[in-house]
Amino acid sequence: MTDSAGRLPGRPGERSAAKRPGRGADLLTGVLLVVAEAAAGALLVLWLVVRGMTRSHEAADGKLSAPPPADPGTDWTPIVAIGVFVLVVACVAVALLLTGWHWSGGIQAVVAVALGVALLASAVQGGGRDAEEPAPVRNAPPCLSGGDSDECARSGG
Predict the structure, then answer these.
(1) What is the tens place of the pLDDT at every residue in 106-144?
(2) pTM of the full structure
(3) Residue 132 and residue 72: Cα distance in Å, rounded?
(4) Residue 89: CB partners within 8 Å, gap ≥ 6?
(5) What does the chain look like in DSSP terms, one character per residue?
(6) Range 41-64 average pLDDT
(7) Is there a contact between 105 and 96 (Cβ–Cβ < 8 Å)?
(8) pLDDT digit string (tens) for 4-45?
(9) CA distance readout (Å), 47 to 41, 115, 129
(10) I need a surface site. Which of 25, 77, 95, 139 has the fewest CB within 10 A?
(11) 112, 93 in Cβ contact below 8 A?
């Protein structure tokens, strides 16, 4: 004795297959999302470049309200901005995978992992960068004793 009014016809796999998109639509959506992310990433990079250029011009013109620190350190704004972008791509990937868009979600997951690896590599490379040391300045007086003494050898003259 089964209650046929509470059950939907077909097996559970058939019901979920009817809700899933076709492979072509799924793949096309994935490619369109990658193109949209490339455009958004290009705008993000453009913003970061313009931001960096305006900061360098403000520092050179003395328009900063406070004096610049002696050791400015690493500017983490680009890392954080790109990290948020990677997080958004990863969330889109999870949402697509959970709703049955397997190809689109998989493509988004690959893009998120690639961006994350590039971001980590950039952060490690940028964080380990030491400040450049200035060139040594020679303040030695000229050699006055004719050139044969130890004084002239040490002073370079």
Answers:
(1) 999 999 999 999 999 988 887 655 555 555 655 655 666
(2) 0.60
(3) 13
(4) 37, 108, 111, 112, 115
(5) ---TTSS-SS-HHHHHHHHSPPHHHHHHHHHHHHHHHHHHHHHHHHHHHHHHHHHHHHHHHT--SSPPPSS-----HHHHHHHHHHHHHHHHHHHHHHTT-HHHHHHHHHHHHHHHHHHHHHHHHHHTPPPPPPPP---PPPP-S-S-SHHHHHHT-
(6) 79
(7) yes
(8) 555 555 555 555 555 666 778 888 998 999 999 999 999 999
(9) 10, 18, 23
(10) 139
(11) yes
Instruction: List CB contacts of 112: < 8 A, sequence separation 6 or more.
Output: 86, 89, 90, 93
Q: Which two tokens stand for residue 133?
A: 């040391």
What is the residue whose two structure tokens read 């704004």?
77
